[in-house]
Write a structure and sequence with these properties.
With 193 residues, this protein is of the alpha/beta class. It folds into three domains: 1-40; 45-115, Histidine-containing Protein, Chain: A (2-Layer Sandwich), CATH 3.30.1340; 121-191, Histidine-containing Protein, Chain: A (2-Layer Sandwich). It contains five helices and six strands, in the order H-H-E-E-H-E-H-E-E-H-E. Helix 2 (45-66) packs antiparallel against helix 3. The longest helix has 39 residues, at 2-40. The N and C termini lie far apart (77 Å). The relative contact order is 0.11.
């Protein structure tokens, strides 16, 4: 009887360990994917993480302070913030920028908020589709490593961010400009040359 209890206990412990270890696989694989994208990025890993923190802090502060007066998307690349979306009025647009300026370590702010009603779900879906097409073309055309460019789309206008050469910036803008559905391309780059 004691041998059956020991075997049952061993099987139970092994099953529990297996379940616990399999939970580590997505974390390890996800961590490797993030690490891989950071390795291909021209930002240091510290700046990469800091950009993510800046986005979260700015987004939370803007949402908290302005509420329904704004639909803002905050993107940060190398501590340069791009704010897109819609504001209820000029005062709300200016306030969003003021709030973003209070976030620690921000170097520059590009405020591309437009005054008007909040974009629809179909408009946002179309923007996500355009972003995916631009990213896919940046990679497939292989003029330079496409991961150097962050693509943001708002109401069919494409904003390009990153640390690039002037040639890479022109190539990225050319690729984005030739995607069906893109109405405007704005370069928000930091140049290395």
């Amino acid at each position: 009887m004691r041998a059956v209890i020991n075997i049952s206990t061993t099987i139970l412990v092994a099953a529990l360990l297996t379940v616990q270890l399999t939970a580590c696989v997505p974390i390890a694989v996800g961590g490797a994917a993030v690490g891989g994208s950071m390795a291909a990025d021209r930002r240091s890993s510290g700046i990469y993480i800091e950009d993510h923190e800046i986005e979260i802090k700015a987004d939370n502060q803007i949402s908290r302070q302005l509420g329904d007066k704004i639909h803002a998307n905050v993107n940060s690349f190398n501590r340069n913030i791009l704010i897109t979306g819609e504001a209820y009025d000029e005062e709300s647009k200016a306030k969003a920028e003021s709030i973003a300026k209070t976030i620690e370590n921000v170097k520059n702010i590009t405020n591309e908020l437009v005054i008007g009603p909040t974009s629809s779900l179909s408009s946002r879906s179309n923007d996500a589709y355009i972003t995916s097409k631009v990213k896919a073309n940046l990679l497939s055309q292989n003029r330079f490593p496409g991961v150097y460019v962050k693509v943001v789309t708002e109401k069919s206008s494409v904003f390009l961010m990153g640390i690039v050469t002037h040639k890479e910036a022109e190539d990225a803008a050319d690729i984005a400009r030739n995607i069906n559905g893109v109405t405007k391309v704005t370069k928000v780059f930091e140049y290395m040359d």
